[in-house]
Structure formats: C-alpha cells, structure tokens
Amino acid sequence: MILVSKLCGKISPLSLKDYKENGGFEALEKALFKMKTEQIIDEVRASNLKGRGGAAFPTGLKLQFVASEKSDIKYIICNADEGEPGTFKDKILLDGCPFQIIEGMIISALAVGASYGYIYIRGEYPQTKDLLKKAVNILKEEGFLGKNILGTDLCFDIEVRTGAGAYVCGEETALIESIEGNDGRSRFKPPYTANKGLWGKPTLVNNVETLINIPYIISLGSEEYKKFGTKSSSGTKLLSISGCVANKGVYEIEFGMTIREIINEICGGVETDKEIKFVQLGGSSGAVLPAEMLDIKIDFDELNKLGIGLGSGAMFVGDESICILDFVKTTMEFFKHESCGKCTPCREGNRHINKILNRIIEGKGSNRDLELLVDICELMKDTSLCGLGQSAPTALLTTMKYFEEEYKEHIEGFCRAGICNLKKGAVVYG
Question: Is the model's pLDDT at 155 over the cut of 60?
C-alpha cells in the first residue's frame, strides 16, 4: 500500500497546480475552516501516529504538550537532518513532494499555536535544500505561508536552515543548539523541548516522514487511516533498504510485513549466491539480527517485545561473506568520529570500544575483552546524555548476543570470512 509517497515521482515537486490537483492543501483547508484546534490534535492522537524518526513517540501527545504551553511565541521544526548511515527515505519525500511536508508543518502550527517554523536539513543535501527554499518562496507568494494564511488569522512562516554534517544534530536538542548558532551538542533534559526548546520557547520537533502523514490523517480521518497497518502501528512505513538484496532502494510498506517478506517479495531476494547472514534494522544504531529472526514483523509492539527498535527505518541485509566483527568495527568507528564529546560515557566509551575491537580483530584479544565490551556498552546505554551514546552500542551488543561464536573464534585466532588480519600463525577459514 502506497500512501505518503504516492505523489513522489508522479508530480512536479515545485508545481503547486500539480499538488492541488492531487488533493494538496485539502487537509489544510479542512483544518482551517471546519475544525477546532483541539479537534486537530484529537484526530492525530486517535490515529495512533508514532514518530517516524526513531523514537516512535506518539505524535498526538507531542502536539498536545506544545499546545498546552502558555507562551507568546512557539516554534515548529522539521527535522530533515537525515544522518543515520543507510537511511535515505526522507530525501525521497523532500525531493518528491516538499509541499506536502510544509502542509504538515502548517497544520501542526495551527494545532499548537506556533507562528514560526524551521526546516533543518543536512548539509550533504545541497540540491534538496535549494528545492525546499524555492517551495517555501512559492507558498509565500501564493498565500499559504506568512500573514493571514488563506485569509484567516493564522500567521506562520518558515525558514530553511542547513546543518554542517554532524550526526548528533539529528537529536532534537543538538539540532536546536545548531539553529541558535551554537555547537551541535545535546542539552540536558528536563526541560524538554515542548516546554523550553528553541530560544527557550515551546517547540514541536518532528521528522519529515512524521509530518507528511498529518495531511493524510486530517483528510482521511483517524478511523480510515488506522485501516492501514496494525493495531499498535497505524499507517505505513518507508524503509531504506541496502546490502546484498537484488533491488535496493526506498519502499513504502504497511506495518505488519515480516522482514523475510520484505526481502523476498519487495526486494527480489538476495543478489549473491550466498545465504543471508544478518539484517541490521534501524541504521548503524540499530540491532543486528540473525537469519533465524527474519520472520519478525515490522510493528512497534512486536519489535519492543524483543527489545528492538525500528529506528530510522533503514535495513541493511548482509550475507555470509561479511565478518561480523569487521562490520561492527566500521559501525563503532563511525560513532567514535561522530560523538560530540560533551558527555564522558559516550566520548570515552566509544574510544575504548574501538581499541578493544581492534585488539580482538588483530588476534590479540581475550575473554576478558569480551566482558569489558559488555560492561562499557551497558554503562553507555545507562548514562550517556543523548541517543547517540545510548544507542551506539546496540549493534555491538546484539552481535555479541546472536553471533557469540564469531567473537570467540577471533579470540582463538579464526576469521570465518577470511577478512580480519589475525595474529601470525592464525588459521583463517571460510
């Protein structure tokens, strides 16, 4: 079922005529002229829409929290800082239907009483940034942004801001610091952004995919929207799929499909002559699952029962040619590089994890190193300031759980994939 991405590639992204002919701004007009602000929030809450950026927080609750705050100024931020490795689904929406994302922002502004918004986009998307700026200017000229939108009392304007390539700015408080002109480093919480966000004012921060769902919910109604997906996970989900599958790309699926169905029925199976070894779900900060777990459903509750998150919606499929330790080493080097350094557990934890992994991969490790890795990972999860440090050890911990044998083989001097540079005299097989 295609819902939120159905206009991508079907219309000219900067053609207001095309967008309106395909239902564009019908939701905004309904919200402006036929609904009270409380009804908008109630409709989103009833839809059971959960954040598509990683945390899966109920979107309606976010709206309610910001709406309940008393303030002269409130802000809406679209988080388009798509920095999770293996994730590229937001770019499809940004390039394919920018008006729809902005419509979601305007409806959100109406619901919470915000007067100003920002689209914060990663610096690695320069063409997309220019497209968004043009889209904003077109909507200002046509009366969909600015003062007295469509002749009503609603006044809401948008500015496009660019990040400088810092992964941590995908975290909402680091993103806010960046917009304010500071270093992109996470803030201590509380206070939360709904209470005290951008420049100390109540702020609603939502991901691109989350915002693009809102016009559909208002147009269809929550009951109709909930017909898509499952009881706990309404609607659809965009997945960025890469790795050894035959058809890589971005796909929109209904919640409830299994990983195996997605690989075989949508991605055309595996492109190599080797068997699937693992799937990493949620980007580099996601869990690494063995082939025996491919029948797990893409459903927030089902995944939560197993302690797994859907994260950004990235899915990497790896075959038997990949060494688990080499794969995890690459992942942990990324987090070491991207740690902002503000909190000690993340800054030092990532550094020590990389040292230990290198030691094991070089054939100089011990069983004590495996114990140290677990201790450091658990400490980071429990005490890091933001989601970067809290989720960075996920791939390592899950591979140690599901691929324990490979770690022990490296301790003994074996690499079944024949990739790692083990100690002199070590046996390599594969």
Answer: yes
Alpha-carbon span 86 to 191, nearest angstrom: 32
Element of type H or E holding 290: strand 287-290
Q: Which of 201, 225, 249 is the last residue of a domain?
A: 225
Domain count, the chain: 3
Region 380-399 average pLDDT: 96
Among residues 272, 284, 264, 267, the alpha carbon closest in space to that of 244 is found at 272
DSSP 186: P
Q: Is the dihedral of CA 221, 223, 224, 228 positive or negative?
A: positive
Residue pLDDT, tens place only, 108-149: 999 999 999 999 999 999 999 999 999 999 999 999 999 999
Of 151, 152, 207, 221, nearest to 175 (Cα)? Answer: 207
Is the separation of the CB atoms in 226 and 48 below 8 Å? yes
Q: In 3D, which of 129, 123, 125, 197 has the Cα closest to residue 160?
A: 129
Q: State the Cα–Cα distance between residues 34 and 27, nearest whole angstrom.
A: 10
Domain boundary among 192, 225, 258: 225
Rounded CA-CA distance 229/245 in Å is 24
Q: Is residue 427 part of a domain?
A: no
Asked if pLDDT for residue 429 goes beyond 60, the answer is no
Q: What is the rounded distance in angstroms from the CA atom of residue 111 to the CA atom of residue 281?
A: 33
Question: pLDDT by residue (tens digit) across 12-53?
Answer: 999 999 999 999 999 999 999 999 999 999 999 999 999 998
Q: What span, in angstroms and rounded, lies between the C-alpha atoms of 249 and 5? A: 13
Q: Are strands 236-243 and 249-254 parallel, antiparallel or unpaired?
A: antiparallel
Domain that holds residue 378: 324-412
- The DSSP H or E segment spanning 62 is helix 59-67
Q: pLDDT band at 428, cuts 50/70/90?
A: very low
C-alpha angle with apex 170: 84 to 232, nearest 5 degrees?
Answer: 75
Both tokens assigned to 37: 């602000």
This prediction's pTM: 0.94
**pLDDT band (50, 70, 90) for residue 423:** low
Q: Which two tokens stand for residue 104?
A: 């979601």
Q: 200 and 306: one domain?
A: no
87 and 201 housed in the same domain: yes
Same domain, 189 and 120: yes
Do 209 and 64 share a domain, yes or no? yes
Burial class (CB in 10 A: 0-12, 13-18, 19+), 264: middle
